[in-house]
Specification:
The chain is mainly alpha-helical and about 290 residues long. The protein has helices at about 5-25, 35-45, 50-65, 75-90, 110, 115-135, 140-165, 170-195, 200-225, 230, 240, 245-250, 255-270, 280-290, and strands at about 100-105, 105.
Length: about 290
């Protein structure tokens, strides 16, 4: 009988490696930066979470035979990507966007500090992310920075689509494009960037990561429908209340779930040739649908 991969332990291990480096991004600004801004950046970066994107980067790198050790380019990319993701959450929570009071069971940055500080936190984290990645002497850092920038821009465009789609009757193709950009892009670039750190083709791997990203967003939307705030660590049912455009609103809950499962199956099939080295990456892929928050 095959022993299940210890996914929770793997995610904890990644968090333990990544979080001191995230803290260091903010702390490096402490000597000359405004104290309140530095504190708010630290608050945002160390707010918990699964660290799914860094885990995907490191697992994808290892799956393709690369170096994912603490001093590796893959680790730099993982930290930079998580800083970009964090900035997006800080801005997403603002009253002008999703207007959330809770994130991962804590007050959102604009609630713990103020709205202006939250805007500046997001601005600062974006700059720090690219500075951190480009501080690497590895010649692959610049192409990785371009790849990250392209997908961060897609994420912004996805957020714009999400806001424009509130209380609108978007069709299935429009909802899929919204999900591809808003959530899919950063998850896809995690897998593609990790593979690129190992010398593999980012373009060849990107579609696999995108399937995971789409499955992740469908699952996230379904959790908003079925889980409670205590489990989610944020307000539940807010998507329906805000009139958000989701796949399950277009095709129904069961069909949306079926499509998420199909996307996962396609991704797992594409990852199968990686063999034993790809075990962690495949486990992370399965976790996309198995998670409860």
């Amino acid at each position: 009988m095959t022993t299940p991969f210890p996914i929770e332990a793997y995610l904890r291990s990644v968090a333990e490696r990544v979080e001191p480096r995230l803290a260091a991004l903010a702390d490096a600004r402490a000597p000359g930066g405004p104290r309140r801004l530095v504190e708010a950046m630290r608050y945002a970066l160390l707010g918990g979470g699964k660290r799914m994107r860094p885990a995907l980067v490191l697992a994808a790198c290892e799956a393709h035979g690369g170096d994912a050790s603490d001093g590796s380019l893959a680790m730099r990319f993982a930290v930079a990507l998580e800083a970009i993701h964090t900035y997006s959450l800080v801005h997403d929570d603002l009253p002008a966007m999703d207007d959330d009071d809770l994130r991962r069971g804590r007050p959102t940055v604009h609630r713990a500090f103020d709205e202006a500080t939250a805007v500046l936190v997001g601005d600062g984290l974006q700059s720090l992310a690219f500075a951190h990645l480009l501080a690497s002497p590895d010649p692959a850092a610049a192409p990785l920075a371009r790849l990250l920038a392209e997908n961060a821009q897609l994420m912004v465009e996805g957020q714009a689509r999400d806001m424009a789609g509130e209380h609108a009757r978007l069709g299935e193709a429009e909802v899929m494009e919204l999900m591809r950009t808003k959530t899919g892009a950063l998850l896809a670039v995690a897998v593609a960037g990790g593979a690129r750190c190992a010398g593999a083709s980012a373009e060849a791997v990107y579609p696999v990561g995108l399937k995971l990203g789409l499955a992740f967003q469908i699952a996230d939307d379904l959790l908003d429908l079925t889980a409670d705030a205590a489990t989610l660590g944020k307000r539940a049912g807010k998507d329906a209340a805000a009139g958000k455009s989701t796949l399950h609103a277009v095709v129904g809950v069961e069909e949306a779930r079926r499509r998420a499962e199909a996307l996962l199956a396609e991704a797992l099939a594409a990852l199968e040739p990686l063999g034993p080295r790809g075990e962690a990456l495949r486990a992370l892929a399965r976790f996309v649908l198995a998670r409860k928050k």
